[in-house]
Amino acid sequence: MMTLGAVADDLTGAIDLATNLANRGFRTIVTIGVPTSEPRPDTDAIVAALKTRAIDPDDAVADSLHAVDALKRLGCRRFYVKYCSTFDSTARGNIGPISEAVCARTGAGSAVVVPAFPAAGRTVYQGRLFVHDKLLHESHMKDHPLNPMRESDVISLLQEQSSRPVGAVRHATVHAGPARIRAALDAETASGACLVVVDAVTNDDLESIARATDNDVVVTGGSGLATGLIGPHIDDPRNVRSSGQAGPPRAIIIGSVSETSRTQTEHARTHLPWRELDVTAVLNQPERHVAAVADWAQEQWNNEPARPVLVSSGQVHSHDPRVSGVVEQANAALAVELARRGARQFIIGGGETSGAVVNALGIRQLAIGPELAPGVAWSSGPAGPDSPVGDATYDVVLKSGNFGDPDLFTAAWDQIT
Predict the structure, then answer these.
(1) Does 302 sit behind a cis peptide bond, omega within 30 degrees of 0 on the bond before it?
(2) Taking a C-beta distance cutoff of 8 angstroms, is the pair 203, 121 a contact?
(3) Distance between CA atoms of 202 and 380, rounded to whole angstroms?
(4) Angle between the 351-361 and 11-23 helix axes, to the nearest 10 degrees?
(5) Which residue has the higher pLDDT, 89 or 224?
(6) Which residue numbers delimit the Four-carbon acid sugar kinase nucleotide binding domain (predicted)?
(7) CA-closest candidate to residue 375, choices 20, 110, 48
């Protein structure tokens, strides 16, 4: 029986959360956008993948509440507001406005704020967010093109976005266990706080926080908090995962220009056929260039049908929003052209690129499959009736730019065959 519903501020974040929920025994599906149909009867959790991270706060709140209302109609009674573990936001939002609005809509008096995900190197201590051994404002996130993070104090960041006081629970209290955490949360709520930032530096901390909040209507955080939840199938979480439903040909399309994605691409290009999108050609003759790259991929598959092809987007567009948008759409168009040539298994690198590709292929729902790394998993789903390719089922990895080991693009295929 489904009871848990989540709203995620982007697609790869939704996959990240769904992966951790599956690990904890929840049979989980991801919907692309607001859920519009009844899930399978054996579904335990639904994660609605929205695109609310960098849009106007009023629009972000409206989209999130639309999703929450849909999840309530489907039977959800607990809600998880998912955002990035690096707290990607600005002084206007959107984490604070969305979280407060969801609390108000569901009748929750308050909610924890837990961006920590120790398995991915994100921890919170004394209210300050660390990325591995660096404070957030000293990490790679300080120069993020959409949400440059110049402050590491989560309480200060959140207070700028929030209409009510922001509370805090420090690590000494977290370390003392669930009962102490619960008492501290109740005290913060009684003092007027709606959102309460909770320290976490280990997985044990996350489990304690999850136990302390297991009766809360709303929780908020990165995907790390889900590692402390207990799902209906916790004793055998492998049974909740979808197996691969498609087959070759295979393609890897990388739109992310993060340091992690660059390392993964460099590793993969020494093992796989590789081509880089020509940004000048994309700007001047996008359809012709996409067709040429797709023809090149077909030639590679003619020789080795099961061998993945790798296409990356280079660095030139990373800080130019206009060019970045054109390249993103070119990557989506390329995925469609490759699908028309038979490709049914894709690895997509980058949150914006993942969203563009999934929408272009007409995929509306995904079931979580084998995990590849913290926050990264295979997923499978059919194309909807509006797919330009027609009736098809896809296996996809939709990866945040900053996640995964260096050999992810080559090793991932072993988990789906």
Answers:
(1) no
(2) no
(3) 31
(4) 90
(5) 224
(6) 251-409
(7) 20
Question: Can you read off the two tokens belonging to residue 375?
Answer: 């926050």
Per-residue DSSP letter, 242: P
Residue 31, pLDDT above cutoff 90 = yes
Residues 252-282 pLDDT 10s: 999 988 888 999 999 999 999 999 999 889 9
How many Cα atoms occupy the beta-carbon half-sphere of 410 within 13 Å?
A: 14
Distance CA 316, CA 263 (A): 17
Q: Three-class SS of residue 310? A: strand
Are 344 and 376 in contact by the 8 Å Cβ rule? The answer is no
Q: Does 11 have pLDDT greater than 90?
A: yes
* Alpha-helix runs per DSSP H in 270-366: 279-284, 286-303, 321-340, 351-361
For residues 64-87, give the mean pLDDT: 96
β-pair type (393-399, 376-382): antiparallel
Element (H, E) at 203: helix 203-212
List, in order, residues 6 or more apart from 367 with CB less than 8 Å away.
Answer: 28, 29, 30, 242, 379, 380, 381
Q: Which residue ranges form the domains of the chain, and what is each CATH number?
A: 4-240 (3.40.50.10840), 250-415 (3.40.980.20)
The first and second tokens of residue 391, run together, are 């009736």
- Locus of tokens 């995907």: 223
